Amino acid sequence: MTEDRRRLLLLQSLREQGIIDERVLEAVGNVPREAFVETPFSDQAYADQALPISCGQTISQPYIVALMTEALKVEPSHRVLEVGTGSGYQAAVLSHLARHVYTIERYATLAGTAGERFRRLGLGNITQQVGDGTLGMPDFAPFDRIMVTAAAREVPQAHLDQLAMGGILVLPVEERPGRQDLWRITRDAQGFSREHLLAVRFVPLVEGLPGEG
Ligand code: SAH
Predict the structure, then answer these.
(1) N or C: more exposed end of the chain, with fewer CB within 10 A?
(2) Would 131 be classed as within a structural domain?
(3) Is residue 126 part of a domain?
(4) Long-range contacts of 152-155 (CB under 8 A, 24+ apart)
(5) Residue 72 and residue 83: Cα distance in Å, rounded?
(6) Tens of pLDDT along 85-142?
């Protein structure tokens, strides 16, 4: 089967699972997922499943990427923060929808590989940083949208602080061991309101940098 055919089947499967935002489907369709998976998994690039990447991390399942992207309601004028660059796939999808994407990763190795992929694909509206994303990216705040792709034990205060008025934050929270839920938090003049989206399974959001003890 050709890559094009595999990509079409993936989009069809996303539609069947309830993804209806055409801009999101188009953005997913525009990103070659095979460029974001490691060589041994190339033939599974368009299967709707998470796959292992370096440093013991994972590239998320396309359905979850699409669902979180749809939940974020990104508009073309938006500056978006993504916490947990990983393979770079989610950032690449967001880069097709937003004005600018800021993405932070605690593993320099992963950030480096993702950066090469962005350059090769000509994605010029992504700014990367290696650091602890639980602190957000204060130098570039506030953000219209924030997406966290690793599970925290509670909503990081920095993410709430760095969310613009009218902003939306989508993130998984592991409130008790083994139970993660995806939340959408909206900020307005009255404060923050949260909506439960679904139960999920992400790698943990880890404070600090690797090797810092
Ligand atoms: N969005 C990624 C998913 C990667 S998995 C993709 O599309 O491939 C989550 C990533 O979050 C991992 O790479 C992990 O190293 C990173 N991560 C975990 N805790 C972090 C932190 N405090 N700051 C930045 N990145 C973090």
Answers:
(1) C
(2) yes
(3) yes
(4) 152/204, 152/205, 155/183, 155/185
(5) 14
(6) 999 999 999 999 999 999 999 999 999 999 999 999 999 999 999 999 999 999 999 9
Give the closest residue (by CA) to ligand 1 atom 12: 86
**Residue numbers of the domain that contains 125:** 3-200
Residue 82 CA: nearest ligand 1 atom is 1
Q: Which residues pair with 186 in a beta bridge?
A: 168, 193
* Domain harbouring 99, CATH code: 3.40.50.150
Evaluate whether residue 40 is within a structural domain: yes
2 CA to middle of ligand 1, Å? 30
> How far is residue 82's CA from residue 90's CA, in Å, rounded to a whole number?
8
Paired residues of 204 in beta bridges: 151
CA pair distance 185, 172, nearest whole angstrom: 11
